[in-house]
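Q: Got a minute? One more chain.
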Amino acid sequence: MFHTCVNLKQLEFAVALAEEGNFTRAAARCHVVQSALSHQIAHLEQELGTVLFERLPRQVRATAAGEALLVHARQVLASLRHLRADVAAVSGEVRGLLAIGQISSLTGIDVVALLAAFQQQHPQVEFQLRVDKSETLLEQVQSRALDVALVGLAPSADLEGVCHQMLQEEDLVAVLSPQHRLATRQRLPLAALQEEALVDFPRGTGARRQTDDAFAAAGLPHQVRFEVNLMELVERFVRHGLAVGIVPVQIADGFEGVVQVPLQPTPTRRVHLVWQRLPTPAARAFAQAQALEEVAQHLVQTAPVVLVAGLAEQRAEFGFGNIEADAGEDLHHVDVAQLEGHAQLLQHQVVVDAGFHRARRLTLILTAQVQDQAIEEVRQRTVAHRLETRLVFTQQPGLGLLDIHVECRIGHLAQGHHVVVAEVQGIAHAAHGPAAVTGLSPDCSIVSAVLQGFPSMRRYLLSILLVASSFAATAQDRYVPVEQRLSAAQLAEVGLDATQLQTLNRVLREAEASTPASTRAPVAASTGAPLPANVPAPAAMHLGLEEGPVSARVVGEVAGWEPGTVFTLDNGQQWQVMKGQMKLRKTLQAPQIEVIPGIAGRWFLQVDEDLPKARVGPIRQRSRGPTVPEWRSGFPRSCLMTRTVLITGATSGFGAAAVHRFAQAGWKVIATGRRSERLQPLVERYGKEVVHAAVFDVRDPIAMEAALLALPPAFGDIDLLVNNAGLAQGTAPAQSASLKDWTTMIDTNITALVTLTHRLLPQLVERKGAIINISSVAGVYPYPGGNAYGGTKAFVSQFSLGLRSDLHGTGVRVTTIEPGMAETEFTVVRTHGDQVASDKLYTGANPMTAEDIAEQIFWVASLPPHLNINRLELMPVSQSFAGFQVAREG
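A: Always. Here it is, folded:
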């Protein structure tokens, strides 16, 4: 009889090792040391009498026997998990792990909000969230690796073997470059695209099947010239006129610099909730009607709700949301209950003068308070991000529409944080209508960042502009139909059809007839309470302080600001906090921007009948004494808001540690590497607003260029390049080393570094940035077998000195860091995957760590801009210079 001593812990270790592909990561996942996991895997192989895992230089891969084991191991572990959950369910308690997956392109459904609502009802349930392709998530549900998943599929997709519920069906639209010959069409038949070059996802993916099915149903061929794996790349290829894309309409709404055109017949994408046929109690509870009802509620809440004064119980449905009002309303309130991304919108208000359609000027103030979790050092902090968008409408003689002044500010308010608030302005002329606001994005980085981070913001702004311009004052002070103000293309962009347009005009006519000519008292933005009666009306309300009378009116409390505190504004004014008011002290000769030392309080509100005389920013608090900042940067202060670093070789070792160091310090990090499974956890930990994963091989210049073109706008301005990617192969004696290994190493360590540096140099010169090249002491001190490797590192050091000479006078800093003995995953690669040899190499040596090197990289980047470190050689205390070799006879 066959007896084994296989235990559950060994099965858990085997599954973790197969999924992680690496002993170190598998051990970390199982919360054990690597040696313990290695011992248990070896014991399991000994018990079963076969090799279960193939140890390769870069990864661990299951053998055929291992794959057979994994099928049963997953079933056993899943059954055990079900057993525990089912026993708990008998007593009415839902508990256990809920493994849920979602596609990255999910629109209209906030999975995090759903999980939060679900956990309130079932606090004993733990969550594990994965983001992947639809077909992968579907397979994982079928194999019981996931409990439930939200996937996007073509209508013809096979959902055999799982339970499912369709939550959403959205149209697919064509996206084209504005210069494309078909960009002006109101609607496109699929036949018009059969000869066009298309950009799409790879064949076999759920996203690609949507397109293939649409053309197949119409009996048409199509040409997919570019296959990509990121929606951002689809946008880039379309924007540059290389191809036409077919994407869900809500995703197209978030694209910038492209035109979307409806298709006929209209293909669709369906979003399904799928779960196992024999679900765990937690999965069953999530998939039941209550969870689905919550999904539906989140879907309908994605549209903004606009309250318009003067309407008596009128309600109308529009493509951009709802317009509601009650008689006597004075407050125009816009509530966006759901925006995509990990951030949760806490407040979003528009406050205007109630009689604005008879006024000559209109100011809309949009403020958003967003909570985001940031882990710095050991403690966890909550950082409140504040977004302010001001739209000022000013009537111009002879124009039916208004000039639109748009100003966005993004700031951070958190006790103890040092932050810089950046500002940007843009003008959209009346002749171009509301759609002209989209033209602000290419020229205004902050606006681009806002639209990138909040995909629904673009249509939302267009909707506000449409309503505002329709109510705006004309020379005759009367109602003007919407279609006389906007072109057909502009109406289509906002999303109004003929029925919705007719309804909107009816509502506007009734509003015009029912609103009295006299203006009402405006409403305070912070509390909703009426302002004092002596405030002149009509009036525009705005945040901040401006040039003008010393007796500025202050509305609201000031929290944490003691009387006497001095603030400096962007316009050079110094204001001092008094009891209940602000007093202008003096105006400096030159405007200045300062780092904010820990602001915690409300904004000031001033009412001024005249047009603003100058652009102003949020209040800056001036420190009364020297302070030690929590982070430093050697870059000019004008670059602080967009401090962005690109780090190559970020999947492990020095590169991964550098990503952590810069992200924790508030930088935006572009992490590059070949292994997406290594980069994605970095994005998940810090958020896609902080870390962007660019997956490519540095030796492939085409892939490198595509990745750089696909960078989100928020990551486009690179200040620092860290060339860390490197390879050590062919380290045998020269007479027996592999020439192929040498060539691969030279391509990685030299050619790729030079190519990327050359590509980014113009931008780095323009931004007065910096370059940090990671070399090695092997380029200085030779050792046996280090021939070609040491030569490549010597090139890096000499190339850096040459760059330093060429870039003299540009303000660009160039530094070479030459580490000595450091223990990282790179060491295992050098020993050809032999963990024992790697461990022996560093036994008792107390080598440097990846974190040590990352700290030095960050220190170099943090130096004042007038300092440059040319070369930085680092060794552990236990290491010294190599001695001369002597061959002795006899």
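A: Residues 340 and 454 are 6 Å apart (CA to CA).
Q: Perfect, thanks.
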